[in-house]
Design the sequence.
């Protein structure tokens, strides 16, 4: 199930780059699910294709569009049901950030605003986490610091381009060509050090214990 709703276009066809990308990678049984209408998103007919879906991919764009269309609707609950029955959920850019519990860069006014009243709730697949993206490519290393200092229950996860975290249960592994940054407000850094640290491809992290596997940190 491909969800391009974070993007700008009012409609999407099989010519959409996200669709062609997955086809070229060998994916089959692809369905595009998209609406800007919350009433439609709350209808049984719209949700029906999700009932047997084994995976959902959220495309990039602006995360507020996903909030406006799906948060609190029957469709959002159906996304969660895919995950609950053993399916896979993934996403790129805005499609990665929406998966956090706390939503960053959700403001309609611009994605430079980290905390926007009315747009601070994500789809919560990663509980007590806030996910940022394009981390090093757009020099965003320090942007999550203010978020986790204000909301100390949160674990910040910053993902660079060409990189992903693969989550299984309470653990994730970094895959790709770059790095992932971890921001934990409950663990004060040594004097003079940044409050975030990096994980390299192949390294694993325990979300429950909030530490790199094989490390005392």
Sequence:
């Amino acid at each position: 199930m491909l969800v391009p709703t974070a993007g700008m276009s009012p409609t999407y066809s099989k010519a959409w780059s996200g669709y062609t990308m997955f086809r070229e990678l060998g994916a089959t049984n692809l369905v595009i699910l998209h609406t800007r209408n919350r009433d439609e998103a709350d209808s049984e007919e719209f949700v029906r294709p999700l009932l047997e879906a084994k995976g959902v991919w959220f495309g990039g764009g602006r995360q507020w569009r996903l909030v406006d269309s799906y948060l609190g609707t029957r469709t959002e609950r159906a996304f969660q049901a895919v995950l609950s029955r053993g399916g896979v959920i993934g996403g790129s850019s805005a499609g990665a950030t929406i998966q956090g519990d706390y939503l960053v860069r959700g403001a309609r006014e611009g994605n430079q605003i980290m905390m926007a009243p009315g747009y601070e709730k994500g789809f919560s697949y990663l509980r007590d986490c806030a996910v940022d993206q394009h981390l090093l490519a757009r020099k965003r290393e320090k942007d999550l610091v203010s978020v986790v200092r204000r909301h100390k229950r949160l674990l910040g996860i910053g993902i660079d381009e060409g990189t992903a975290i693969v989550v299984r249960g309470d653990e994730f592994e970094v895959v790709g060509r770059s790095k992932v940054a971890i921001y934990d407000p409950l663990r004060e850094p040594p004097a003079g050090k940044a409050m975030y640290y990096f994980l390299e491809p192949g390294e694993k992290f325990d979300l429950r214990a909030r530490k790199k596997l094989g490390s005392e940190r």
Q: What stands out?
A: The first strand starts at residue 2 and ends at 3. Residues 125-217 form one domain. The CA atoms of residues 20 and 49 lie 20 Å apart. DSSP finds seven helices and twelve strands in the chain.
